[in-house]
Structure to design on (335 residues):
C-alpha cells in the first residue's frame, strides 16, 4: 500500500540519504571490475544514490549528475520482465529455474551439477538463456531490449558501445556458458548472436536517477510512479520482486537481505537497484565492488537507509518511523 508522505518526511529522507552517501564515501574497500577493461577506467571515488518515490518525487545525493554508468547485471531484470509479460511464467520457467544458485554469478560448475537449466534468470547463464529466447536478428532482438528499456526506465536508454565492445573482447567465460547451454539443448539460437544481444543488454547506460525508475515501478505494483499508469501486471511484479529477494545479489543474497530487507539486484559496474514495496525504488552507484560483484559502498548506503527509515521488510508495517529501528544483525562479509 502506498503511504502518503508529508513534505517533512521527504526532507528527512533527503537528510538520511545524504548522510548515508557521505558515510559510505569513507570506506575504501573494493576495486572496479577490471576484467572488463572499460569498467576499470571509471573514476573510482564516484558515489551516488537516487530514490524515486511511488509518488513520483525523486531524491538524489552524491555524484548523481556525473556521467552515466552501465547498468550491467541490474539490466537482467529487463528480459525477465519483458518475457513474463509477453509469454507468461510457464514459458519463462521452461528455460530457467527460480532457485538461488549459492555460487558465483558466472559459475559453470553449477550448470554441471544442477543443470542443464540455469538456476535462475539473474545469473549470467539465466540471462543468456533468456536472450536466446528472443526472436530474429541481433538488431531485431536489441531493438526489443531497447523498447522494453524505455518502458521500464521511463525514457530512452542508450547502449554504451565501448563497454559492449570491451565485454565482447573479454567474454571467454560467458562464451563457455553459452556453448554449454547450447550443447545441452537449452540454447537453440546462435551462440555469438545471442551473446551480442547479452552484451548490449549489460551495456545499457544511464544515471542513478534513471536506474531508480525500474525498481520504483516494481515498488508501485507495476504502475508508473507519479501517474499510476499500469505498465506491468501484478503477477509479473510478484515474481520479479521475489526472485530479486532470493537471487538478486548472487551468493551474498542471504546476508544482504538480512541486513537491509529490500529486494535488490546488483551489477558489476557498481550499481545496485532495490525495491521498497509501496514506497520507493532505489539505485546506488559506486564502482568499488566486493568479490561477489556487489558495490561495497552501495551495500553501506542501503543498510543505512533500511535502519534509519525502517525500510526492512520486517518493519514495513510502520514505515517512516521517527526513531531509528533496531538494527538487524550484520553478517560477516557483507560488503
Amino acid at each position: 500500500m502506498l503511504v502518503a508522505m508529508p513534505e517533512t518526511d521527504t526532507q528527512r529522507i533527503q537528510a538520511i540519504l545524504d548522510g548515508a552517501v557521505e558515510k559510505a564515501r569513507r570506506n575504501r574497500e573494493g576495486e572496479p571490475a577490471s576484467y572488463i577493461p572499460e569498467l576499470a577506467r571509471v573514476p573510482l571515488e564516484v558515489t551516488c544514490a537516487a530514490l524515486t518515490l511511488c509518488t513520483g518525487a525523486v531524491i538524489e545525493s552524491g555524484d548523481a549528475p556525473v556521467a552515466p554508468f552501465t547498468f550491467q547485471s541490474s539490466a537482467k531484470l529487463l528480459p525477465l520482465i519483458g518475457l513474463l509479460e509477453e509469454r507468461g511464467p510457464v514459458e519463462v520457467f521452461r528455460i530457467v529455474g527460480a532457485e538461488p544458485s549459492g555460487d558465483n554469478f558466472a559459475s559453470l560448475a553449477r550448470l554441471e551439477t544442477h543443470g542443464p537449466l540455469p538456476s535462475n534468470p539473474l545469473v549470467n547463464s539465466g540471462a543468456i538463456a533468456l536472450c536466446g529466447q528472443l526472436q530474429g536478428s541481433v538488431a531485431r532482438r536489441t531493438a526489443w531490449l531497447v523498447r522494453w528499456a524505455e518502458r521500464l526506465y521511463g525514457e530512452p536508454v542508450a547502449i554504451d558501445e565501448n563497454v559492449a565492445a570491451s565485454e565482447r573482447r573479454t567474454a571467454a567465460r560467458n562464451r563457455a556458458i553459452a556453448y554449454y547451454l547450447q550443447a545441452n539443448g537449452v540454447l537453440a539460437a546462435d551462440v555469438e548472436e545471442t551473446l551480442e544481444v547479452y552484451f548490449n543488454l549489460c551495456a545499457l547506460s544511464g544515471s542513478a536517477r534513471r536506474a531508480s525508475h525500474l525498481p520504483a515501478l516494481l515498488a508501485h505494483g507495476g504502475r508508473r510512479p507519479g501517474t499510476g499508469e499500469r505498465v506491468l501486471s501484478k503477477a509479473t511484479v510478484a515474481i520479479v520482486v521475489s526472485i530479486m529477494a532470493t537471487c538478486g545479489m548472487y551468493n551474498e543474497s542471504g546476508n544482504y537481505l538480512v541486513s537491509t530487507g529490500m529486494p535488490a539486484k546488483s551489477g558489476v559496474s557498481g550499481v545496485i537497484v532495490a525495491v521498497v514495496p509501496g514506497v520507493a525504488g532505489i539505485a546506488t552507484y559506486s564502482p568499488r565492488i566486493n568479490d561477489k560483484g556487489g558495490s561495497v559502498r552501495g551495500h553501506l548506503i542501503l543498510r543505512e537507509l533500511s535502519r534509519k527509515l525502517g525500510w526492512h521488510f520486517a518493519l514495513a508495517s510502520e514505515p517512516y518511523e521517527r526513531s531509528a529501528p533496531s538494527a538487524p544483525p550484520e553478517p560477516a562479509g557483507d560488503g
